Amino acid sequence: MSEIYQNLKKLVLEKKELKLKEVDLTHDNLILNCDVDNIIHNIDILKRSPEFKFRQLIDILGVDYPQQSKRFEVIYLFLSHENNFRISLKIKIGDEEIVPTLTDIFPSANWQEREVFDMYGIRFADHPDLRRILTDYEFEGYPLRKDFPLTGYKEVRYSAEHQKVIYEPVKLAQDYRDFNFESPWEGSEYIKKEQDKVEEKK
């Protein structure tokens, strides 16, 4: 673990104005955890404080953990050019919770928040233009949620007859198969042989 990030962790812990739940340093990756209500407060400090100067927002990420009560994580990645280090700030939110937009602090958050909304359905309060950015405007569902079906809900194609893109029910070229690689019926004969050996030993 590098001395730079050890010192950065110490600076974060000494900064009493930061409202954090947890500070974790693993493999030179400093991750700060906070409540959604404190996100703007903390990011403003990280950007403006001379000991940090995190003046570049690299990315905003979403993660879906459907088994948890607060199923979504939103992760913000920041870079300090002056101090040559990075930091991650993480929040956990439930299905209906709304996250404050960062566009007033980092204008570049505009498209990044739109992407998180498009993929996960996470909403950002006071966002100036919160609409889909990667999928079509009539797209149904949120593709990176774990409960989104692999086939999607609709099939999109260009119709030469109608001279436009049309939506149709999904038609699979072959039946959808749920492959079980431990099953001898899926072409994994060697697994069956190994299972037979185990049975013989018993």
Present the secondary structure layout.
Blueprint: H1 3-14, E1 22-26, E2 29-33, H2 39-48, E3 56-64, E4 72-80, E5 85-93, E6 98-100, H3 109-120, E7 123-125, E8 154-159, E9 164-169, H4 189-201
Please, could you describe this protein's structure?
The chain has 202 residues and is α/β, with parallel strands linked by helices. The chain has a single domain (3-144), classed as NADH:ubiquinone oxidoreductase Nqo5 subunit (Beta Polymerase, domain 2, 2-Layer Sandwich). 23% of the residues lie in helices and 27% in strands. It has four helices and nine strands. The longest helix is centred in the last third of the chain and has 13 residues, at 189-201. 17% of the residues are buried.
Low-confidence runs: none
The rough form would be described as: globular
Report the span from N to C terminus. Answer: 48 Å
Q: Could you give a short account of the major beta sheet?
A: 5 strands, mixed
List keywords for this structure.
alpha/beta; 9 strands; 5-stranded mixed sheet; Beta Polymerase, domain 2; 202 residues; 4 helices; two-stranded parallel sheet
